[in-house]
Amino acid sequence: MATKDITAEEFNDTINDNEIVLVDFWASWCGPCKAFAPTFAASAEAHPDVVFAKVDTEAEQELAAAADIRSIPTLMVFKKGKLVFNQAGALPPAALEELVQKVREFDVDAAIAAQNDGQTE
């Protein structure tokens, strides 16, 4: 599956209606964003069951502000609607592949349960 450009209106549905969603916050004037784009697109092709979304921070300034984007590119990863990774900077291909694999293995439900157990003590 190719990458998908999403807007503020599509953002919540995209992260909530899909198991795993990687979101690349970028801008057309950003050199590192341009350099990261082929890596992101190649990973999207390699993992058709994962949603690779792109948010143009210039066109979606309110969404970028709501997501607290301070530097681009910023990569956010959601699993079952929960933010599990948030990092500014372009990842090299091997690191992005490792991240996708770790997110696949990550049990977000167990992590939430453990977090909730810790809050009740």
From TrEMBL:
**Keyword field contains tRNA-binding:** no
Site residues, Deprotonates C-terminal active site Cys: D24
- Return one GO MF term: protein-disulfide reductase activity
- What SUPFAM superfamilies does this protein's entry cite? Thioredoxin-like (SSF52833)
Keyword Electron transport assigned: yes
Domain annotation Thioredoxin: ranges: 1-105
One CC-aspect GO term:
cytosol
Give the function comment from the record.
Answer: Participates in various redox reactions through the reversible oxidation of its active center dithiol to a disulfide and catalyzes dithiol-disulfide exchange reactions.
The Swiss-Prot or TrEMBL record describes its family as follows: Belongs to the thioredoxin family.
Q: Which PANTHER family match?
A: GEO12009P1, THIOREDOXIN 2
PROSITE patterns associated with the record: GLUTAREDOXIN_2, THIOREDOXIN_1, THIOREDOXIN_2
| Residue positions of the active site | C30 (nucleophile), C33 (nucleophile)
Protein name in the entry: Thioredoxin
NCBIfam families in UniProt: thioredoxin (TIGR01068)
Q: Where exactly is the site Contributes to redox potential value?
A: G31, P32
Tell me the keywords, alphabetical order: Disulfide bond, Electron transport, Redox-active center, Transport
Instruction: Kindly list the cysteine pairs connected by disulfide bridges.
Output: C30-C33
